[in-house]
Structure formats: structure tokens, C-alpha cells
Design a protein that fits this description.
CATH topology of the largest domain: Quinone Oxidoreductase, Chain A, domain 1
Shape: globular
CATH architecture of the largest domain: Alpha-Beta Complex
Keywords: Metal-binding, NAD, Oxidoreductase, Zinc
Cofactor: Zn(2+)
CATH class of the largest domain: Alpha Beta
Structural class: alpha/beta
Family: Belongs to the zinc-containing alcohol dehydrogenase family.
Number of domains: 2
Pfam family, one: ADH_N
Order of helices and strands: EEEHEEEHEEEHHEHEHEHEHEHEHEHE
Number of helices: 11
Protein name: alcohol dehydrogenase
Strand content: 15-25%
């Protein structure tokens, strides 16, 4: 099968022929239809984080495909022909305190698609049947592929924010994650303000198209002050852009009793004014992807509220060019690899 393979960090991926994977007892094999390209794939290919993937590695964790083979122990909840997704959370131990209390994303023994196991930048991929979530009938696989990462990530972050209908949430950064976050927030009854790069007219337009009421595109060091003056501060801020200064400004943007929800993963440390944190009752909390239940909810909401990602279809051969575009912020919305393209 054709695959895009990381053979060395910070080097172009190689497009090469590799063996079609064989399923273990609890696996299914899918023939990929689509796979979204996430910033985490770029981090994986560059070896940006302390825990690096073993090489060679096939990235990709926003895959959607058709089941073509099942392992010997797979239950009757899946069958050949089912359309399922391959999300970041590939499998967990199922037995630790986190797995047993509905917090499986915190399992220390988890495996991750495209990082600790091969992912979906390939014509075929494996998925643990216990963590496979079907694509609801009638949903477009290309526009839905990013929901298996970007969608569930922001949906879970919005749940973590504890913002109630009619209250304000800010989405800091309106790219592949942030643009989807706006649509979910609106569907959940929240009022939305976004923060985009200075004078980024494309992001301003995308924010409004997705349903944001207010958009800040001014100096990056002023967004906290602007939120306080414009709407009295937000009830929560969800940060989807990997810039430390954006986290610090988000802290300044929330009203008393607010929450700062960290989603993006910049290297570095955030400065928190402890007195403001204590006296203002401000909470800072991390949110990482979502559980299987979160993913099911996220897909159902998307189906009933017509939430689709703004996507550009590309071929797997374009992956290195796509990564260059990501590095230079030349992508509006999300890129999806199309495995049906000739």
C-alpha cells in the first residue's frame, strides 16, 4: 500500500510502498477514504516533544475508512463495510483509575494513532475495535474526518469550560481547531468572541461565517484588555493557538470566576499572576482530546446542527507541501487527504 512515512525528524516524509497491516485479535483493518491533517502530525514528524515517536512512523489520526477485515476477537458491534474513524486515542488499558472513571484520555498506558502506532497517512490502517467509533449515517467523510480530532477536542474543551447557554466564551486562534470550536460553541448556546492574528481578514471572515459575534484582530498584547472593555470579560477562554503569550492574554480576558482552558501545546511556560488568580477565583485547566463517549456526542451534535469542517482536499503525495503551508499559516480551515483521488 502507499503511505507517507516519517523516516527522520524534520525531514520530508517519504511516499513509499509498505505492507498492508495485519489485524491483531482486537483490531480491524480499514481502507482509508479520508484523513485530516492535524498540527500534531507536524509535531510528530518534527520530533518536537520530549516523548518522540519511534521511527519509521506513519502519521495521521483523523482517518475515516471502511472496515475490510476484523480480528478474531472483535465483537458484533462492528462488521465489514462499517465506516469508522481512527482518532488520536487508539487504545487504553481499560483497567486503571482513569479508564474506570470515564477519563480514559488520561490513561498512562494509552496508545495514540500516528504517534505510538501507525496512523492513517496510508491507504490502509489498523484500529482497535474497542475504540472504533462509527461515522453517523449520512455524514460526509471528508468534511467529518477532522471531527475525529479537531471536533472532539474542541467539543470536550467547551464542556470543560462550563460555559452555560447565553454566556461568553472566547476562542483564541481560528484555524483548523478554532473554526470548528466556534460552530460547536454556537450549537451549545454560547456567545462567541474570537481572537485572530492582527489584520487577518481571512480569519475575521471565517470567524463570522462560523457564528462569532465579536472578533478581535488587533495587537496580540491587547486582547485581554479588549475583551474586558468590550464584553466585561468572557466566562471562559479556550486557547487553540500554540503561542505562550496568547495563553497569558487569555488569562487576562476572563471575568471573575472564569476558566482558562488550555488546548494548544506550545513549548514553554505560562506566567500566571497568582494574586489575580486567587482573588478572581480564576481556574486554569488542561483539556486533551475526548473519550469515546465525547466523540459519539460530538458526531451526533455535528449531524443535527450541520457542523462540517471547511476543508481542502489534497493527495497524499502533497503531504510535505501541506506541512510547509501549515508552518507558514497558509491554510484556512483544514486539509484532508483524499484516498479516492486518482
Amino acid at each position: 500500500m502507499k503511505a507517507a512515512v516519517v523516516t527522520a525528524f524534520k525531514k520530508p516524509l517519504e511516499i513509499k510502498q509498505v505492507e498492508i497491516p495485519k489485524p491483531g485479535p482486537n483490531d480491524v483493518v480499514i481502507k482509508n477514504i479520508a484523513c485530516g491533517v492535524c498540527h500534531t502530525d507536524l509535531h510528530a514528524a518534527h520530533g518536537d516533544w520530549d516523548v518522540k515517536p519511534e521511527l519509521p512512523r506513519i502519521p495521521g489520526h483523523e482517518g475515516i475508512g471502511e472496515i475490510v477485515e476484523l480480528g478474531s476477537m472483535v465483537g458484533n458491534h462492528l462488521k465489514k463495510g462499517d465506516i469508522i474513524g481512527v482518532p488520536w486515542l487508539h487504545a487504553t488499558c481499560l483497567h486503571c483509575e482513569y479508564c474506570l472513571t470515564g477519563r480514559e484520555t488520561l490513561c498512562k498506558q494509552q496508545t495514540n494513532s500516528g504517534y505510538s502506532v501507525d496512523g492513517c497517512f496510508a491507504e490502509y490502517a489498523l484500529m482497535d475495535a474497542n475504540f472504533a467509533v462509527k461515522l453517523p449515517e449520512g455524514m460526509d467523510p471528508y468534511k467529518s474526518a477532522p471531527l475525529y480530532c479537531a471536533g472532539v477536542t474542541v467539543y470536550k474543551a467547551l464542556k470543560v469550560s462550563q460555559v452555560r447557554p447565553g454566556e461568553w466564551v472566547s476562542i483564541v486562534g481560528v484555524g483548523g481547531l478554532g473554526s470548528v470550536a466556534v460552530k460547536y460553541a454556537v450549537a451549545m448556546g454560547m456567545r462567541v468572541a474570537t481572537v485572530v492574528a492582527p489584520n487577518d481578514k481571512t480569519a475575521v471572515s471565517l470567524s463570522k461565517e462560523m457564528g462569532a459575534e465579536e472578533v478581535f484582530d488587533g495587537p496580540p498584547d491587547q486582547h485581554g484588555k479588549w475583551m474586558q472593555e468590550k464584553i466585561g470579560g468572557v466566562h471562559a477562554a479556550v486557547i487553540t493557538v500554540p503561542i505562550v503569550a496568547a495563553f497569558e492574554q487569555a488569562f487576562q480576558s476572563v471575568r471573575r470566576g472564569g476558566r482558562v482552558v488550555a488546548v494548544a501545546l506550545p513549548n514553554g511556560k505560562m506566567a500566571v499572576p497568582i494574586v489575580d488568580c486567587v482573588l478572581g477565583g480564576i481556574e486554569l485547566v488542561g483539556s486533551i482530546v475526548g473519550t469515546r463517549k465525547d466523540l459519539q456526542e460530538c458526531l451526533e451534535i455535528a449531524k443535527h446542527h450541520n457542523i462540517e469542517c471547511k476543508v481542502q482536499k489534497r493527495k497524499i503525495e502533497d503531504i510535505n507541501e501541506i506541512f510547509e503551508d501549515m508552518l507558514h499559516y497558509r491554510i484556512s480551515g483544514r486539509v484532508v487527504l483524499d484516498f479516492t483521488a486518482k
